[in-house]
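Pasting two entries for a bug report.
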Amino acid sequence: MSIWPAAHYIDLPGHGGAPDAEPENWLSTLPGEKPVLLIGWSLGGMLALKLALKQPRLIKGLVLIASTAKFCQSDDWSAGCPAPLFRAFERQAATEPERLLRRFFALMLQGDELAPSLKIRLQRSCVNTAAPPSARAMQDGLSLLQNMDLRPHLDRIRIPCLIVHGRRDAIVPLAAGEYLCEHLPRAEMRCFETAGHAPFLSHTKAFRKILEEWCQNL
């Protein structure tokens, strides 16, 4: 984007041709010494929060898109993925990873007011067919989603944060984004009323405008 001199895209382990790595080493450090604006989507947003706890001086701002402090439901957390659905994800990751990817991308755009043909094109554009996620990466990613609970640590993250969420998100409920906004000390939120899990794909122009305006005020 024009307001940034450079943008760097980080492939998680096992994605986009990057080698696999142990889950605890996923996005465990930032290269360089200059503070950056860190943007994370879904699991990427959770990993960005972990980095903000570990390297706060290297992050001047966080943008968390369709993310959460805790992915799975529990007795004290209703704004998460129900256990039966998550177990189905785990089974498919172990036996039918390609089918799990198709299921995820269908859920990703569920609720968006897009023509079916456009949804299909967007789903296809999200997969690097030359280097799709490895089977191990899919299982490790699910392990991270199952075990991470960042709720006790949110009040320690005093970096400016922008929370972006779709009201119709079928993967991470809107309540999860609202929780982040309420518990991160310097957070503000933008909600897309007719978006699902990927507002940057379904509402690209509006998303870009929000992002650029917020960044200019950092």
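Entry 2 (this is the one that rendered wrong in the viewer):
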Amino acid sequence: MMSRTIAFFFGVFIFAVAQANAAVVVFQRQPTVATTFADGTFSHHLTNQWDDGFYAYPGNPSTKAMNFYGINGLSIFFNSPVLLNSMVLEDLSNNSFNVNTLTVSLYDTLDSLLTSQTYSFAQLLLAPLATFNTAHVARISFDFTGGGNAYNDGRNAAWYLVSNITYSEDIVDDVPVPGAVALLGFGLLGLGVRRRVS
């Protein structure tokens, strides 16, 4: 019971430290579409036709961006894995090119899915805070359903906003430190001696 309590408080402590040291993704037009930020890059020019990608919105630079040209399948890549905390999502269209659902997926360095969350159009109208607190994130992917053939090129376009993407230094998986293991051993030995004396 005692070890579970210690583990719980250690987890709370690590989470609090991570939140205190959180960074925010900043979008800056370079010169039009955002391509890099302090700790990574953004996918862009996916259509090979438009200058598509994330555009700072409404100012430049901004912690908020829109998927310009209504492009689907945009990603954010981190130079090294992070602990992804949260982000805010919103629908931008309010017309016939609305997002029906928006799925945010998190991947590790091997491009294995860690977790994903899907939001409906009704939820996006409320600008929900998507909380993840997921470690080892190397890529964030944004995929929508819905929209319409806005450019008459056969693909569905829809618009959304993403903002306040907060992340922290990645959490290293617990590896026992020799000193801690020795201390634990002495503690167990002391408990055994105490029981025998009693």
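Dev reply: Rendering is fixed now. As a check, the viewer should reflect this: Residues 7-19 have pLDDT under 50 and may be disordered.
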